[in-house]
Design goal:
11-stranded antiparallel beta sheet, mainly beta, single chain, Lipovitellin-phosvitin complex, beta-sheet shell regions
């Protein structure tokens, strides 16, 4: 009987290797994230089509301020933030955010429990215009900034996974009186070569208009039927240093919206193609 068990064990398939795709933080660590977002969209209102092309370039510096059991504090500083928009009045943006910092306190799950710097962010973008500051605060409340900041660190599953393992995640971003964006993602560990793990993602994005009267905004989205016709991408995670190093996501969003402004209600059709490419490195992309 013992011999039989030994023989069976010799031919039994080995358990698959598993990989911890978790961020590793060390106090004093500095790294940089360079992201480029290209958006091509067409808006049709009252049988008139408007084509718009937007390119956003953002470079941020991350510095790990402290690491304690269950708590990590990270500072994020904008080094460059530019917007080049064609077909969008007032779309070209000077580097208003340059030098603006946020400090986030994260728990063991890398969820942000405290965010500092929000008021300075509003001051920088509004540039002294109180009406603009009020509008920005309404459509981009502090909780939205928390969620956007935190998404950099929470793409990986909480437990180690093997090649071909899958996991899901749902992200909800509130845009104040504009509505809510919900992203449902299905992720899969495709392969691991050396220290680099490739993660694929497919998902869906839906926008839901907010209830109410628009919260004092000059316009209100009273109804919306927007969803992603395409949402897929790939992420590269370095298992040795414990960090996401590359990310590429493409999305096509389409649908209709009903907008109310100045006592008038109009229906609009939107088709948007967006490509986001990010690289996280130890070197400053501006200097090096």
């Amino acid at each position: 009987m013992i011999a039989a068990f030994i023989a069976f064990a010799a031919f039994a398939p080995a358990a698959p290797d598993t990989y911890a795709l978790q961020w590793k933080f060390k106090e004093g660590d500095v790294f940089y994230n360079k992201t480029t977002i290209n958006i091509d969209q067409t808006i049709e209102v009252m049988e008139q089509k408007v084509d718009q092309s937007i390119t956003m370039k953002v470079i941020v510096k991350f510095k790990v301020k402290s690491v304690k059991e269950g708590t990590t504090v990270v500072e994020m500083t904008y080094l460059e933030n530019s917007v080049d928009a064609k077909g969008l009045p007032g779309g070209n943006n000077a580097d208003k955010l340059k030098g603006v910092s946020f400090t986030a306190t994260m728990n063991a799950k890398l969820e942000i429990t405290k965010l500092e710097g929000y008021d300075k962010f509003l001051d920088a973008v509004s540039d002294g215009d109180e009406a603009q500051r009020k509008l920005l605060k309404a459509i981009m409340p502090e909780n939205t900034i928390r969620q956007s900041f935190g998404q950099t660190f929470t793409i990986a599953p909480e437990k180690p996974v093997a090649v071909d393992d899958k996991w899901n995640r749902t992200d909800k971003i509130a845009l104040g009186p504009l509505g809510n964006v919900e992203t449902k993602s299905a992720l899969k560990l495709d392969s691991v070569k050396g220290d680099l793990a490739t993660i694929s993602v497919k998902g869906d994005v839906k926008f839901k208009a907010a209830d109410g009267d628009g919260g004092g905004l000059p316009f209100q989205i009273t109804a919306a039927d927007l969803k992603a016709d395409k949402f897929d991408g790939k992420h590269i995670f370095d298992t040795k240093i414990g960090r996401l190093t590359e990310s590429k996501v493409e999305m096509t969003l389409s649908g209709t919206m009903t907008i109310k402004a100045a006592g008038q209600t109009v229906d609009a059709k939107l088709v948007q193609k967006m490509k986001t490419v990010s690289a996280i490195t130890d070197k400053n992309p501006i200097v090096d």
